[in-house]
């Protein structure tokens, strides 16, 4: 009963071991989970929940896999 | 010459004379290719004060040293001319297979001058080059013409063509290629139309020589391997640029109702996911691209096919005209493609007209009885057709929003969303100072491709107006247009995070000229300063005032969404310019100083 | 072993053709490659990829016995024995034996697999 967060590329170092399983994330929005992980949601270009792009106000369900796609070479740093 | 086609093809449409010149080695050394070639040749060859639509203006279609080689995304072609939209420099980029085919025909640049006595197309089959009658194609849409020419000449020919908008002289007519790729900005299609040149058809069967074959093959394999290993590859392949529509709304940067807002309430109807699951049928790539952003769609409601809509079209035809059905946006995209209109400028022009109508600045007497309102696809398409035909309101709108505002007056200048006469592309920037500065200083007008700095604003604070923001814009204005000199696409870097360290070694292996990344950036800075000099030479009184943002950005706050209430002050915009000019080595009026020109080897100009 | 293509995934970029001409001839030239990308645009808007299935029809048709199999079992044209009659080109059911003005003998896929590595869409595989 959990949600798996998979940040890719530049977002990876922000989460230990490259991905993280959150036990209490079901019922929260993607944006809330990002805030808990201290990831700036405005720098996440795309959120894919179970392979489909969703807005960050999407409420997560048990078993969801959330992939976070950043902007990388667009002048971020 | 290693890595190059090796020649400039000169075509005089007035006399019918066609000749090939060897590509000068100095030109390749100092200006690299594509955008660099176009900028240099425009400056040197087109007489000062030339009328953009006159025979003395020239059109340069140029490939770069990477075009047509085994380099990820090496499918970009540059088209340079004096812009009928802005009166200054126009350099438009188009993907597809055109620049690769030019190289296989042994050509780096097609330099077109004069005016053909009748509708004509340029036929290139390796060494056989002819001007052929195009009367049968004149008046036909871009997609129709491309299909007809491919049927007549063979599938292996690559076609660049204009539609009715280019023929009628719409100041933002595009040049179309590969059923959905456009050299969109600055009115390059109108210049082609003014020359009575309907199309260019090219086929080449030669090999492109490279200097260090095995090193090049090894570097190429590493480049593709890195792209394929990029963790974001799958997502970008699936959605293309449309993947950022949702994000743009979440950060309040999605142009909506003529940039009154940065958030469109129906944006989820236009999202990448909506598009992918409802209309996309095929992923469509430019030459050599492992991460195709092209999404080819079938629009059931209208029974038409279209490449796209990509993000910019969704922003300017979708949000900015308040169309809330992806099929309507895709249909309007198809209409623009067939007519040969740049969707960015056209979306701006339509939204501007609708807002003028709402304010009572224009009325049914001006619109031919059409009641203009946001959110109505029929209104959008009716205006697009008027524009392409230069009929009714289209006669005014077809010259761009700067011209339309000057014609309509009554305060409409404040919401004509343009810089230097070019309509603004898809990022509402009142709460993104470095993005706004990117628009203000872009060398073709308000376009995003030279610098896309909005994520820098987010990282460093969206309110901050600090020198590092000007520095970032300058850095991006050298990196991103460098790709346009190389004849390659920047999106493998932007989206996949392909390390920039891949590029200099492969350029070196291909051309045999020793180059570091810094050497390449110096060329890019040289080109940037050269295009700036061109503006000063061509536009009387050119200077700081031409870098001002559209008044709406400092007069009115964003109406709704995450950035509601935000605007930038005029003073802050001026401070950004001061920082930018100083760091560029330009004077207070934005003119490159003699010291800067000397440093870049431009003192003689 | 032969090349297999899943056409529906192809985005038409032609990197495979460059990798192919580099392998066969050490040249950058899609017109000297041994697989075909056929675009069907604007309607229906799909790409068709045609590759050698190593069916051997070319070898059966060759009047001089110039088409042999290499150590992987892939067919190739022995240019020394080829008379340039183009019977194999006609015989190929996939139309993937190619000619070029630079070369007297036709050329075909030798199942090297170089194209696979540069395909971003994973269209190609060796089976």
Structural summary, described in words:
The complex is a heterotrimer of chains A (77), B (605) and C (127). Chain A has one helix at 30-36; strands at residues 3-7, 20-22, 44-49, 52-53, 65-70. Chain A is mainly beta and 77 residues long. Chain A has one domain (3-70): Roll (Ubiquitin-like (UB roll)). Chain A starts with a strand and ends in a 7-residue tail after the last strand. In chain B, 41% of the residues lie in helices and 13% in strands. Chains in contact: A-B, B-C.
Low-confidence stretches of chain B: none
Coarse shape of chain B: globular
The oligomeric state is heterotrimer
Domains of chain B, number: 3
Number of strands of chain B: 17
The geometry of chain A reads as globular
CATH topology of the largest domain in chain B: Aldehyde Ferredoxin Oxidoreductase,  A, domain 1
Please provide a brief summary of the model.
The complex is a heterotrimer of chains A (77), B (605) and C (127). Chain A is mostly beta strands. Chain A is built from one helix and five strands, in the order E-E-H-E-E-E.
List keywords for this structure.
heterotrimer, A: 77 residues, mainly beta, Ubiquitin-like (UB roll), 1 helix, 9% helix, B: 605 residues, alpha+beta, Aldehyde Ferredoxin Oxidoreductase,  A, domain 1, Aldehyde Ferredoxin Oxidoreductase Protein, subunit A, domain 2, Aldehyde Ferredoxin Oxidoreductase Protein, subunit A, domain 3, 6-stranded mixed beta sheet
Write the layout of secondary structure elements.
The complex is a heterotrimer of chains A (77), B (605) and C (127).
Chain A: E1 3-7, E2 20-22, H1 30-36, E3 44-49, E4 52-53, E5 65-70
Parallel strand pairs in A: 1-5
Antiparallel strand pairs in A: 1-2, 3-4, 3-5
Chain B: E1 7-12, E2 18-22, H1 25-31, H2 35-45, E3 59-62, E4 77-82, E5 89-94, H3 98-104, E6 109-113, E7 120-125, E8 128-133, H4 142-153, E9 158-161, H5 164-168, E10 175-177, E11 181-183, H6 188-194, E12 197-203, H7 213-229, H8 233-239, H9 245-250, H10 272-278, E13 280-284, E14 294-299, E15 304-307, H11 311-318, H12 326-339, H13 343-358, H14 364-367, H15 377-389, H16 394-397, H17 401-408, E16 418-419, E17 422-423, H18 433-441, H19 454-460, H20 467-486, H21 491-494, H22 503-511, H23 517-538, H24 552-555, H25 570-584, H26 594-599
Parallel strand pairs in B: 1-6, 7-12
Antiparallel strand pairs in B: 1-2, 3-4, 3-6, 4-5, 7-8, 9-10, 9-12, 10-11, 13-14, 14-15, 16-17
Helix pairs in contact in B: 1-2, 2-23, 7-22, 11-12, 11-13, 12-15, 13-15, 18-20, 18-25, 20-23, 20-25
Chain C: E1 3-5, H1 15-25, E2 36-40, E3 46-50, H2 57-61, E4 67-69, E5 75-77, H3 87-91, H4 114-117, E6 124-126
Antiparallel strand pairs in C: 1-6, 2-3, 4-5
